[in-house]
Amino acid sequence: MELARPVKRSSKHGEAAQGGPGGDHEGGPAQESAGLSVGVLDRDSGLVVVLAKRMERLGWTHRVLPSRTSAKAIAAMDFDAVVVDPDVLGARRWNWLKSLCAERPELGVIVCTGSSTVEERVLALRLGADDCLAKPCHPEELVARVEAVTMQARRSLPVSREPRWVGEVEIRPDQFQAFVGGRSLRLTRREYQLMGMLARSPGEVLARDEIYERLWGFRMDRSDRSVDVFVHKLRRKLEEASPGWRYIHTHFRYGYRLAAERLDAPEPELTPARRREPIAA
């Protein structure tokens, strides 16, 4: 079954009319997400039909894709996001997902599947998916997660469109990307949102549940490891591109902090007030 085909738009997400990602917006999420284009790779006809009706009411274009569609073909389509049930892909599902996320890092990828373990959902996130949702699920929640992934005018993104530097890393809001020495880190949409949010609070420890609520728009379940997975992915990309620096610091069982520190920098000398005095016998 094929629904409305995605159409080319003169500006991504209606940026010209709405001030662009990171700009000022009037109205709520429905206005900010108007005009989205979504691909759906799923054989659950009941979910697909209801989801299609909801997207039509929001003014989104959408297309149901056959399971044989290659990742490269989807990456070439003008989608803002893709909803994927890996079960329809069979044994090739993880290579397919990895290929799709590598081809279009900025594409929003939402995995929605019923037969998955925690390990598989974590793997999907590590391969580049932006969100994972277990079936059975309510179509409204799935739509909300698509909105959360694709909306660029979120408070997690830098408000200013001017470049920002953190150590050797240049954050470019105008390109939704970060660079080291002119080379792109090829951040996914969610990784860039995370980087932008941490950069807005340099040196401040952000709690894991706060990060989750600001990026995903939902309360975090205790067992959810999404934040840890994305921090691990972002930290790895930063360290590979800028090996002489340490950027993301873990505060055990609480959260994370962004602070650029040279690995070869000498340890600061403690002042008398900061030295630990011996305990009197």
Task: Tell me what the structure shows.
The chain has a five-stranded parallel sheet, with helices on both faces. A four-stranded antiparallel sheet has the order 6-7-8-9, with helices on one face. Strands 10-12-11 form a three-stranded antiparallel sheet. It has helices at residues 15-18, 29-32, 45-57, 71-76, 93-103, 118-127, 139-150, 189-199, 208-216, 226-241; strands at residues 37-41, 61-64, 81-84, 108-113, 131-134, 164-166, 169-172, 177-180, 183-184, 205-207, 245-251, 255-262. By secondary structure, the chain is an alpha/beta fold. The longest helix is centred in the C-terminal third of the chain and has 16 residues, at 226-241. β3 (81-84), α5 and β4 form a beta-alpha-beta unit. α8 crosses α10 (226-241). The protein contains ten helices and twelve strands. The protein folds into two domains: 12-22 and 32-150, Response regulator (Rossmann fold, 3-Layer(aba) Sandwich); 164-262, Arc Repressor Mutant, subunit A. Helices cover 34% and strands 19% of the residues. The radius of gyration is 21 Å and the shape is globular. The chain starts with 14 loop residues before the first helix and ends in a 19-residue tail after the last strand.
